[in-house]
Specification:
The protein is mainly alpha-helical and 174 residues long. Among the domains are: 64 residues, Arc Repressor Mutant, subunit A (Orthogonal Bundle), CATH 1.10.10; 49 residues, no CATH class. Helices cover 55% and strands 0% of the residues. It is elongated and about 95 Å long.
């Protein structure tokens, strides 16, 4: 069992003040976790998670970040989503590039994703993964559209027989 202990960055009254003055709801839940731990530090994270309606990992992460960073930890907590620091291009750059590519795609000059991948690699100066390309398409509402090469329930034998036995030309019936 991990014991949850808070570093004395803020007093219980200051934690309560932060909770009541929080504008964002997720920040309010952080302060609620910290205030609960400060009142009774002998409980398990599972118990806090149960009565606060959060996950056990969130309890651990909030307490860890508070102890490590201090009262300004809310600025540094990120839960999922796309990080601009680790992204290859910003959304605006991607959007501009995809709008330029849309003109080529409409004219039929871009046929496959690997062509777009080469253009992106040339622009950013390094290799990008296939997943990045497909995520890029999803972010900008591009769909994969291609003709079906053949019907999935086709009968190859019947097709060949039709080719052999069909008339070479058709005449209107009288």
């Amino acid at each position: 069992m991990r014991i949850l202990q808070l570093e004395p960055h803020l007093t219980t009254a200051e934690l309560s003040s932060k909770l009541s003055n929080s504008i964002k709801s997720h920040h309010r839940s952080y302060w609620q976790i910290l205030l609960s731990v400060s009142f009774n530090p002998n409980k398990k994270a599972e118990e806090y998670a149960l009565f606060l309606g959060v996950t056990k990992s969130k309890v651990y992460k909030v307490v860890e970040q508070y102890n490590k960073i201090g009262a300004d930890f809310t600025d540094d907590i990120n839960w999922g989503g796309r990080r601009l620091a680790t992204s290859i291009m910003s959304f605006e750059e991607e959007n501009k590039m995809m709008n330029d590519l849309k003109l080529k795609a409409v004219e039929g000059k871009i046929l496959v994703a690997k062509h777009i991948k080469k253009l992106i690699e040339k622009k950013v100066g390094k290799q990008v993964s296939d997943d990045y390309i497909w995520d890029l398409f999803k972010r900008h509402n591009w769909k994969k559209k291609m003709p079906r090469p053949e019907h999935p329930k086709r009968n190859k034998v019947a097709q060949e027989e039709f080719k052999k036995n069909s008339l070479k030309y058709w005449q209107p019936s009288e």
